[in-house]
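Open question from group meeting: does this chain pack into something compact, or does most of it stay loose? Before anyone orders reagents, we agreed to write out a predicted structure and look at it together. Recording both the input and the output here so the notebook holds the full record.
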Amino acid sequence: MTTIALRRALSAGVLFVLLALPLEAAAQSGVTFTLTVRSAFARSAPSMASQRAASLFKDQTYTVNARSADGLWVRLNYTGLYTDAWVQAAFGVLQGDLGSVPVITTPGGSGAPAAVPTPAPVEAAVPAAAGPPAYQPLDLPPVPVVGQTARDIYQRGLALGNNPNAFSKVGDCQSVVPYFLAAFDYGLYNLGPYAALQGAIDHFAGSWARESVATNRGFNVATV
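Structure tokens returned:
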């Protein structure tokens, strides 16, 4: 074997040993954690104030490779992260002897004994069998009263010869035909319980699908 090949073999062997160390330590603990809530975030440290590291979901199982001194948090063997993955033990079920898992104290974490239990995060409080929320009608404010200034503008427009049965659209690609309001001229709509609005649609017939020079794709305030 050449010197270069020997060096490569030794380097590969050292790398394999280094990579195998955490896995071997985790395997020796024999402790696993299975999430029982619908979902939760793994944190970079044993604290709710730490950064979110990964999303966990119900029935997922991970090997535990460390714990906080108070036992409220466990660190998961979560591969592919550039940071640790800590989760509150109360969010799942532990299998094995947690006492065999090494204690890790991290800055800002809950490594000190007798720490106050951290409240459950909002995302973990959602029940697993929760269905879609019931429909709730929108509590919208009433239509405002048309002020005198608006009435004066309208009257001045009539005096200038403007058509009282027409309106113009002003905007960008969200306001172009056929996407914005044009369905009212095409007859492609169903008012359902709002049939009383048909009079307004008829009053402005021809304007809903009319091309406007003040509407175009890419328009901004300055171009309008």
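Observations to bring back to the group:
The longest strand covers residues 61-67.
Strands lie at 32-35, 39-43, 52-57, 61-67, 73-76, 86-88, 92-95.
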